[in-house]
Design a protein that fits this description.
heterotrimer, A mainly alpha (309), B alpha+beta (564), C mainly alpha (251), A: mainly alpha, MetI-like fold, 2 domains, 0% strand, B: 564 residues, alpha+beta, D-Maltodextrin-Binding Protein, domain 2, four-stranded mixed beta sheet, 10% strand
Chain lengths: 309, 564, 251
């Protein structure tokens, strides 16, 4: 009996392999790349549990168990940086994620090609400005005598340094992120939009559906799988905020809302460049991120057709 | 996730600075009183030496020897490190061919750790903060212990260390281990940071350069009310020259440092004087006398404030800035005149030399350690090659370049402002009547680059050698600044200390927490978001976070240093 | 040239920043190398990504679910810098151009997007082609890819821009300066001009005049580094125009 099933499985395998031999060839190239460049070096995560010293090497450095994790958990700033990291991502998903979709949909409705191209070029340009310069501009605009304050003062608002106000930090951070990324982010949706069959629109027009209805019933469903996949992937970085922009924009007055995991680890690194500690925190981060991705994928699979696997 | 991953690879120059600070703190050297000095090795004009211990004759057997040398490098002027004249001249003089491995700058710390991790070590390794310190590297079998080798193969270095017990003290570990060649300066380098003010504004208002805190208050008020300045004084707490803390220092405290008060270690930001400093700053902030945007002021916009004339004074300026600031400032306002001032004192009649204790004392050893790999097969050649830098000829080569090319000896003694105290004894007679003068290649470079760019080609790179910190061409204000800022006779700055592995660990854990809290509170105190009356609670909280443990550790380190 | 904060009120115009950057002897080498890395790297990345995206998008292929999970995991967990560096050394591609191209050949994010896009192409097209005796390579190159030009353009843009902007791998894997990409050289120039601050701390003195041009150099560097990619964009843009999907081909 067992032999029989075994044989049957083998047979299925054989036929499948024959039928799809080129597919397997392609897949094995990709899998080989992943094994070599991603899985072989993965043993390095063990330094999260060691006191890594480059002179001794990964294998010979002493084990310290969960020390690095403990040191993070008992840190008085632990709760604050976790909360801030999470909240900044939530705001970014709420505002930053839909922004490029809306831009793409708007551009889709625009008929004038010149206008469309101009808008596209203008919105995508900021993506290429280095983060240091972007933050310099933000600091300049938000300073006491900066552009924003000068505008606001016409409406009788008192001039203050906006970046010194902890209640505004997330808004400034997420808002400037949208400004910088909206055009670049919309490219992928624009590409997805081209996949929608034009005949559907023609048919809908004949049926007398207005543009709003077409948007709801043709355009959005047409790019929904792209949106879902990108959303699932976005959920997989819910505990990640890059430290560069944070450390360029924050100051001790806004630590309360601005200090995130990566910036805190960065400041700690200033005192002692410690691979083990940052690996441990990175690992913790990744675990949480991965669970969020799995959760999002499961929900998406359950309620829509889309999933990563 | 990508970004998080990057954290494993600390990229910032900040970390670099940290590792430099670490390497500064980690010191090692030699107590051996080597008899084998080369003080008398005569120096001939063509830069070669006659016979004698540690002279070029010792290199005869190394003709064609190859050494590998890992050295971070970047330049906007020369293409590769081999285009540096000092490098070329060293090869000519010693016959040793050095193969430079140059990681891109900005990535030194990672590149260094990767090199160590790969186990493929070059002969000569400039330390970039080996985890746990140089002593640990010796124990791990990465660096060579040099104690016995220096008297044998590095007589010039041994002789410099023997000149002054403090040199040797600052060049070795607590247990006496010496694992590196250090950048040494045989005299005290002038302080390089302190306050500055617009003299032209003061003249216009008929005011004197302020000396006491009250003077400063009056002057800043006048700058605000009469001169209508947007920023009477810039206050850069996160300044790139953070070591100098002119105003906190007046109150015997410090914004961030541990201080050595006559042998007792204290933490500056919880000293009683720090409360007075905060009270003053809070008052000044309320009255609009200091930068409204001090919390977010970055270096670029700080420069703009100074050169555009919006700022009347700078709490902590740095002497390298005077030149560029003046050039930009004079372009818009020909009267622009920013002058350095002495550190402020508490009351009229106080002598800053006696009452101020937080300056910027510079130590004889400037770190920049160069170690030799424990796996090197050319130990003697490597030592001799490094040792040459500490000879009189090496001193001239590394500080001034090649005679007849980048400098010439001309008549007139070496002045103190040009660093007469930094010259080796072998040159002491000569510098009474002659001094080296840079040629037009450096001062009026035919390629049109300025002195500071041209030195990439003609002077030594920044690394361990016997250094004259005044062998540069500087703006006149700079010399004035050195005088005014170097007044404190007794400085509370900590000497270069060594940390044990455990101490480094405690430091990272405790100080990150304390620094975060301290910075937040200090900013809030100054801006009035926290009442100054809560200062005691602030001190209690820092104590709760474990500052006493760190004070104890630092005290131990200081005592170990004193007992070296 | 005076700056009032950032870019707000430049009081004059000067080429000084550009000449300072462009006079650097390494810039032209950097440009050449970057173009090389972008062209070769993007080509290889596209081949890998198309193979992976196509193979994993076909229904009924065994193990594809597990392979996808394994691939997704690599987005989250990595061994960090040191094992990666040792691997590159062991593979013998250290200090060669391959060290820049191979380790970053596949972006998992891009691969997943590519797969999603391929999945939306009706299976009937593939089946009819196979009836006519086409193998999977033919299907991929003759049917799938021509129908996916917009997403291909996006991927080319994403890979190309990523390669154009990348410098870190070059910083750790390259030793020979004649293989350095532009971004690494520009970064060095920026750091060199910021080194003022660092050197000043240890040195006491430094970069007097350099300091003045720091901001200038920063902006010039940015323009020099991003201009080419801005110029290239309109060429790809045409693929994002609605309706390029050759409807007739489908029919």
């Amino acid at each position: 009996m067992i032999v029989k099933t075994h044989n049957r499985k083998m047979n299925i395998l054989k036929t499948d392999f024959k039928k799809n031999k080129y597919i397997y060839l392609m897949v094995s190239i990709v899998v080989a790349w992943y094994i070599i460049f991603a899985y072989i070096p993965m043993y390095g995560v063990i330094i999260a549990f060691k006191d890594f010293n480059p002179g001794r090497g990964i294998l010979n450095s002493p084990w310290v168990g969960l020390d690095h994790f403990k040191s993070f958990f008992i840190d008085p700033n632990f709760r604050r940086v976790i909360t801030n990291t999470f909240l900044i991502n939530i705001y970014d998903i709420l505002w930053g994620f839909p922004a490029p979709i809306i831009l793409a949909l708007l551009m889709n409705e625009v008929r004038s090609k010149i206008f469309k191209k101009t808008v596209q070029n203008l919105t995508y340009l900021p993506f290429f400005i280095s983060i240091v310069v972007v933050c310099g501009i933000i600091i300049d605009f938000t300073s006491t005598n900066g552009l924003i304050n000068q505008l606001l003062s016409h409406f009788g608002v008192e001039k203050t340094n906006l970046l010194a106000n902890k209640d505004l930090f997330r808004t400034i951070f997420v808002g400037s992120g949208i400004w910088q990324g909206i055009g670049w982010g919309s490219i992928i949706y624009l590409a997805a939009l081209t996949n929608i069959d034009q005949q559907q629109y023609e048919a809908a027009t004949i049926d007398g559906a207005g543009r709003w209805k077409q948007l709801l019933h043709i355009t959005l469903p047409g790019i929904s799988s792209t949106i879902m996949i990108l959303l699932i992937l976005r959920m997989g970085s819910i505990m990640s905020v890059g430290f560069e922009k944070i450390i360029l924009l924050y100051n001790p007055l806004t630590y309360d809302t601005a200090d995130v995991i990566s910036s805190y680890v960065y400041r700690r690194g200033l005192l002692n460049a410690d691979y083990s500690y940052s690996t441990a925190i990175g690992l913790l981060n990744s675990l949480i991120n991965f669970f969020f991705l799995i959760g999002a994928n499961w929900l998406s699979k359950k309620y829509s057709e889309n999933s990563l696997w | 996730m990508k970004k998080m991953k990057k954290l494993g690879l600390p990229l910032s120059s900040g970390i670099l600075v940290a590792s430099m600070v670490l390497s500064l703190a980690a010191c090692g050297s030699n107590t051996n009183n080597s008899e084998n000095t080369s003080d008398n090795a005569p120096n001939t004009p063509d830069g070669t030496a006659t016979t004698g211990a540690g002279s070029l004759a010792d290199f005869a057997k190394f003709q064609g020897t190859k050494l590998t040398y890992w050295h971070p490098f970047s330049s906007t002027y020369i293409k590769s490190i081999n285009d540096n004249m000092v490098v070329q001249e060293m090869e000519k003089r010693t016959g040793i061919k050095v193969d430079y491995i140059t990681p891109p700058s900005g990535q030194e710390s990672d590149a260094f750790n990767l090199m160590i991790a790969s186990g493929e070590l070059p002969d000569i390794i400039p330390d970039q903060g080996y985890k746990g310190g140089g002593l640990k590297a010796v124990q791990d079998g990465v660096y060579l212990k040099l104690n016995d080798l220096i008297p044998k193969y590095a007589p010039n270095y041994a002789a410099v260390l023997a000149q002054n017990p403090d040199f040797a003290k600052q060049a070795k570990e607590d247990d006496g281990t010496i694992w590196s060649f250090k950048m040494l300066q045989t005299d005290e380098e002038p302080s390089w940071a302190g306050p500055a003010i617009r003299k032209d504004y003061l003249d216009e208002l008929g005011l004197q350069v302020p000396k006491t805190i009250d003077d400063w208050t009056n002057v800043l008020k006048a700058l605000k009310d009469k001169k209508k300045l947007e920023t009477p004084m810039l206050l850069q707490l996160k300044s790139k020259f953070g070591a100098a803390e002119a105003f906190a220092g007046t109150f015997g405290s410090s914004y961030s440092q541990f201080l050595n008060k006559n042998g007792t270690v204290v933490y500056g930001p919880i000293e009683p004087g720090f409360k007075d400093f905060l009270t003053l700053m809070n008052q000044w902030y309320k009255e609009g006398l200091i930068d409204k945007d001090f919390a977010t002021r970055d270096d670029t916009s700080a420069d703009a404030q100074v050169t555009s004339g919006k700022a009347g004074a700078v709490a902590v300026a740095f002497y390298g800035s005077f030149g560029p600031w003046a050039t930009s400032g004079k372009a818009t306002n020909p009267d622009y005149n920013l002058v350095p001032t002495t550190y402020p004192v508490l009351k009229e009649g106080d002598d800053p030399a006696k009452t101020i204790h937080v300056g910027n004392k510079n130590w004889y050893s400037k770190g920049s350690d160069i170690a030799i790999s424990a796996k090197s097969k050319n130990v003697e050649a490597a030592l001799r090659w490094l040792d040459y830098r500490y000879s009189a000829e090496g001193f001239m080569l590394f500080n001034y370049g090649v005679e007849g090319v980048s400098y010439n000896w001309v008549d007139g003694p070496v002045e103190q402002k040009d660093g007469s105290g930094f010259f080796p004894p072998a040159l002491s007679e000569r510098i009474k009547t002659q001094h080296p003068e840079f040629t037009d290649l450096l001062t009026k470079n035919p390629d049109g680059v300025d002195f500071w760019t041209a030195i990439d080609k003609y002077k030594s790179l920044y690394e361990a050698y016997l250094r004259n910190p005044l062998s540069y061409v500087m703006a006149p204000e700079v010399y004035d600044a050195m005088d005014k800022w170097s007044t404190p006779e007794k400085d509370y700055n900590m000497p270069p200390l060594s940390s044990t592995d455990e101490e480094v660990k405690v430091n990272a854990e405790v100080m990150t927490q304390i620094n975060t809290y301290r910075e937040e509170m200090v900013y809030k105190f100054i801006m009035g978001e926290e009442p100054i009356d809560d200062f005691d609670q602030y001190v209690a909280q820092i104590k709760k976070m474990g500052i006493d443990k760190m004070i104890k550790i630092t005290q131990d380190q200081l005592e170990r240093y004193n007992n070296r | 040239m005076q700056h009032e904060g950032i870019l707000l009120k430049p009081l004059g115009f000067t080429w000084k920043g550009y000449s300072l950057v462009l006079n650097n002897p390494n810039i032209s080498i950097g440009y050449y190398n970057t173009v090389y890395y972008v062209v070769v790297g993007t080509l290889i990345s596209m081949i890998f990504t198309c193979f992976g995206g196509y193979a994993l998008s076909r229904k009924g292929v065994l193990f594809s679910k597990y392979i996808l999970i394994l691939i997704t995991i690599t987005m989250f967990f990595s061994g960090g810098l040191i094992p990666f560096y040792l691997l590159v050394k062991d593979l013998g591609i250290y200090d060669t151009r391959w060290a820049i191209i191979l380790p970053s050949a596949i972006s998992t994010w891009n691969l997943i997007i590519m797969r999603t896009s391929f999945m939306q192409i009706p299976e009937s097209l593939e089946e009819s082609a196979k009836m006519d005796g086409a193998n999977d390579f033919t299907v991929l190159f003759r049917i799938i890819l021509p129908l996916s030009m917009p997403i291909i353009a996006v991927m080319v843009l994403f890979y190309g821009v990523a390669m154009w902007n990348s410098w870190f791998n070059a910083a750790i894997f390259l030793r020979d300066r004649s293989t350095f990409p532009l971004q690494l050289i520009l970064r060095e120039i920026l750091i060199q001009n910021d080194k003022g601050s660092m050197l000043q701390v240890q040195n006491g003195i430094s970069g007097q005049a350099e300091d003045m041009y720091r901001a200038l150099i920063q902006y010039s560097t940015i323009v020099i580094a991003t201009l080419p990619i801005l110029v290239a964009y309109p060429f790809l843009q045409k693929y994002f125009v609605k309706g390029i999907m050759v409807g007739s081909l489908k029919g």
